Input
Amino acid sequence: MKATHFVALCFTAVVALPAVACSSGNPDSSGSPADESEVADPDGKADGTTKPAFGTYELSGSPASGSAALALLVLKSDHTVHGQYAPSCLTCTPGHFDGTYKFTKSTTTSRRYIRIELPSNDVIRYEYKLPSIGKLKLRKDTSSAWITMAESSDHWCAAASDCETQDIIHPMCVGDFKCEDSSCSYQCGICPIIDCAAPPEGCHYEGGVSSPCDKQTCGHLVCGECDPSECGPQLGMPNTLCPDGVNYSGPTGKCLKQPSGSCGWEVLSCPDTPADCRTTGCSSGQYCSFCWGSYACIPDGAVC
Output
């Protein structure tokens, strides 16, 4: 009986071992399990991990129709974010979102996330990987499918302030960003700011003219017309086409009241046109940049 009892105990121990072995394992090795526990991932490389760069990312390749894949992602340095989904059909309007984001990391696995918080208090999480420079792989935490996005040279914007927070490389000159057709551009030179809606009392702006600095300027100041006799003889000056090929200079034949209250013949002047590469342009393979005190054409990719 004693021998039989000893054998039974040994058999029980052998059978129990596999059960213990199956209870252990790596939670990161079974596909894409739930991974709800996360903490903030500090900016920079203090933890040895590079974070996605600020800028505009576009989906690489064409998504399948109806997939509603993320087609555009804009990460800004003020930690606001803009995203657009691929349209669900050829004629559909793409969905989009705006919110704030932060980088987080799992407390139980090696996963890194972009956590997006929307004004509605909804949260979107994308696991991310950086396979190469300028590439960003994303997986929504509710999906097992990965998409690849590439950093775009065409930076998205809704306003010029969106351009200032994407670390965009621009010519080394004093200037500012502009947002046109949802795309950022940089313009060298500081343009004068004129409030066209607030002319001096009793006057108004007339005949807006095109200018290299802005698409449209206020035009010339008109403070009412006088009787031609109050202006004296006509000036007899010629009208001349301006260097910009659009505007004319010379008398208009109008006797106008000046802001000082006196009357005089209206004479148009050409808008200021800089005689440099801002107006003449540059050859193929070059761009116009402020360099050593003046504007000059320098090779693409070069920095003055």
Remarks:
- The chain has a mean pLDDT of 76.
- The domain at 38-151 is CATH 2.40.128 (Lipocalin).
- The two ends are 96 Å apart (CA to CA).
